[in-house]
């Protein structure tokens, strides 16, 4: 007896008993019989039903913005499987083939893609592949942020950038601060961090100690650069009351 052309050690009887797995579906089992005159060989594939098995593991892909991309993924299963590609977080099917082709990608296309295989009545398997798109920084901060007069205020600038930003600049009133360069007036500090919840984005925080009336009258420009160019956002700081409510003009009620 042999399987896939490899002799099975100790299998010399007319009946071969074994536990079948998925390999018996692709590697034929053969029985060869000899006598003084010659030999005869018969082979057969076993129709083994099995759930999805990943044959080709998809690899992470990094490309520049506006490039075409092909993501690869291959499953095996019996009965024949159904394959779908989706972007993580979406139910829209992008492809039913082993390959997913994306044309002229933008930074919005970056993220994780799910390659899912379904073998009817047997099982489901899925794997993920990460697409990274190099491009200019994207700033996703709230355009309006709040602070309480007389207290410590923070203006946050979230910078998603692949490759990472080479330069970060804050500009407001007479102040200009560049990452690792320049000085600030006594009331201001700038710090950089990478919050885990932001998926690798850089958080640049401009802190104002003892917020004054004048701090609410200037736009705050947060700009970041990498090798693909700049990304920028204008942030407005508004006054917030002690109870967390935006300060409203005084109102007068008249009863006649």
From TrEMBL:
Annotated compartments: Membrane
UniProt keyword Ribosomal protein, yes or no: no
Membrane topology: Single-pass type I membrane protein
Main location: membrane
Domain of life: Eukaryota
Gene3D superfamilies per record: Immunoglobulins (2.60.40.10)
UniProt keyword annotations, A-Z: Disulfide bond, Glycoprotein, Immunoglobulin domain, Membrane
Name assigned to this protein: Kin of IRRE-like protein 1
Residues annotated as domain Ig-like: 52-132, 136-236
InterPro entries named in the record: Cell_adhesion_signaling (IPR051275), Ig-like_dom (IPR007110), Ig-like_dom_sf (IPR036179), Ig-like_fold (IPR013783), Ig_sub (IPR003599), Ig_sub2 (IPR003598)
């Amino acid at each position: 007896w042999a399987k896939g052309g490899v002799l099975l050690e100790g299998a010399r009887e007319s009946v071969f008993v074994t536990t079948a797995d998925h390999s018996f579906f692709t590697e034929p089992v053969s029985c060869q019989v000899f006598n003084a005159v010659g030999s005869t060989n018969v082979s057969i594939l076993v129709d083994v039903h099995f759930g999805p098995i990943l044959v080709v593991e998809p690899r992470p892909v990094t490309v520049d913005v506006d490039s075409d991309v092909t993501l690869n993924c291959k499953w095996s299963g019996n009965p024949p499987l159904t394959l779908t590609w989706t972007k993580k977080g979406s139910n829209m099917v992008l492809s039913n083939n082993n390959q997913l082709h994306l044309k002229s990608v933008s930074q919005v296309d970056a993220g994780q893609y799910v390659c899912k295989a379904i073998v009817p009545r047997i099982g489901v398997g899925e794997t993920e592949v990460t697409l990274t798109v190099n491009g200019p920084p994207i700033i996703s901060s709230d355009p309006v942020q709040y602070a309480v007069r007389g207290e410590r205020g923070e203006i946050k600038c979230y910078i998603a950038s692949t490759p990472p930003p080479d330069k970060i600049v804050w500009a407001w009133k007479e102040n200009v601060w560049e990452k690792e360069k320049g000085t600030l007036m006594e009331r201001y500090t700038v710090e950089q961090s990478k919050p885990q919840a932001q998926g690798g984005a850089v958080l640049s925080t401009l802190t104002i100690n003892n917020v004054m009336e004048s701090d609410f009258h200037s736009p705050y420009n947060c700009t970041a650069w990498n090798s693909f160019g700049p990304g920028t956002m204008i942030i407005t700081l508004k006054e917030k009351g002690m109870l967390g409510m935006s300060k409203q003009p005084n109102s007068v009620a008249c009863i006649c």
